[in-house]
């Protein structure tokens, strides 16, 4: 029978491991350009020599560690990078306003790093309409694999120093509340609110 103090020690050990994994995952995301939380956590656990069945921290803990790391080691450069990516996003959103664009992801929430991509959700009747528009504007794009079954397509644009993913959803999905893998509501922002975001940071 496990003694109460042994249970407490086991719980503390698990919490310490999770904190180590979260810190290592945050560093990988900040420095190596990993954008997927699950991938970063698994790679961090592997790098720490922990077994595959180790309990991983949730995304919120990794995000908190990522923000701390960026404040400590990338503060000014990271702020400038995010400001630049938000300005690029605003320019693209203004161009494709007819498709109901929303900024989402790390560029919106402020955790974007030097390798982060811009994610813009579009809500329209057909992804083909977006493709035709881009072709008419002579904007090159390529198809990327959607991260969710809800998305009809992902059209990726290569900017001078940034990558923009146009994630196309059916129009009737615009009022649906999107959530992250760990159940948190996914933030998104319309073009009308972009100027306020750029002003306040």
The total of helices stands at 7
Low-confidence stretches: none
The tally of beta strands, per DSSP, is 6
Strand content: 5-15%
SS-based structural class?
Answer: alpha+beta
Structural Rg: 19 Å
- Percentage of helical residues? 40-55%
Question: Overall mean pLDDT score?
Answer: 89
The major pleated sheet works out as: 6 strands, mixed
Description:
This protein has helices at 4-32, 37-47, 59-73, 75-95, 106-109, 127-136, 194-200, and strands at 102-104, 118-124, 142-144, 153-158, 163-170, 188-190. With 201 residues, the chain is an alpha+beta fold. It has a 6-stranded mixed sheet with strand order 3-4-5-2-1-6. It is elongated and about 65 Å long. The protein starts with a helix and ends with a helix. The mean pLDDT is 89.
What tags apply to this protein structure?
single chain, 201 residues, alpha+beta, six-stranded mixed sheet, elongated
Sum this structure up briefly.
The protein is an alpha+beta fold. It has seven helices and six strands. The mean pLDDT is 89.
Topology:
Layout: H1 4-32, H2 37-47, H3 59-73, H4 75-95, E1 102-104, H5 106-109, E2 118-124, H6 127-136, E3 142-144, E4 153-158, E5 163-170, E6 188-190, H7 194-200
Parallel strand pairs: 2-5
Antiparallel strand pairs: 1-2, 1-6, 3-4, 4-5
Helix pairs in contact: 1-2, 1-3
């Amino acid at each position: 029978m496990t003694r109460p103090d042994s249970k407490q020690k086991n719980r503390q050990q698990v919490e310490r491991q999770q904190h180590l994994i979260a810190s290592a995952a945050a560093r990988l995301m900040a420095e190596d350009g990993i954008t997927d939380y699950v991938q970063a956590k698994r790679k961090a656990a592997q790098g720490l020599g922990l077994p595959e069945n180790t309990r991983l921290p949730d995304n919120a803990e990794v995000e908190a560690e990522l923000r701390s790391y960026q404040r400590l080691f990338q503060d000014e450069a990271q702020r400038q990078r995010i400001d630049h990516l938000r300005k690029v996003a605003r320019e693209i959103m203004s161009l494709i306003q007819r498709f109901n664009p929303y900024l989402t992801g790390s560029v919106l929430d402020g955790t974007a790093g030097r390798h982060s991509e811009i994610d813009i959700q579009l809500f329209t009747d057909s992804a083909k309409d977006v493709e035709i528009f881009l072709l008419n504007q002579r904007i090159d794009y390529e198809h990327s694999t959607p991260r969710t079954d809800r998305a009809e397509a992902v059209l990726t644009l290569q900017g001078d120093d940034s990558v923009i993913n146009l994630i196309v959803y059916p129009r009737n999905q615009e009022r649906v509340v999107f959530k992250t893998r760990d159940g948190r509501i996914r933030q998104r922002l319309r073009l009308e609110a972009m100027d306020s975001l750029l002003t306040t940071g």
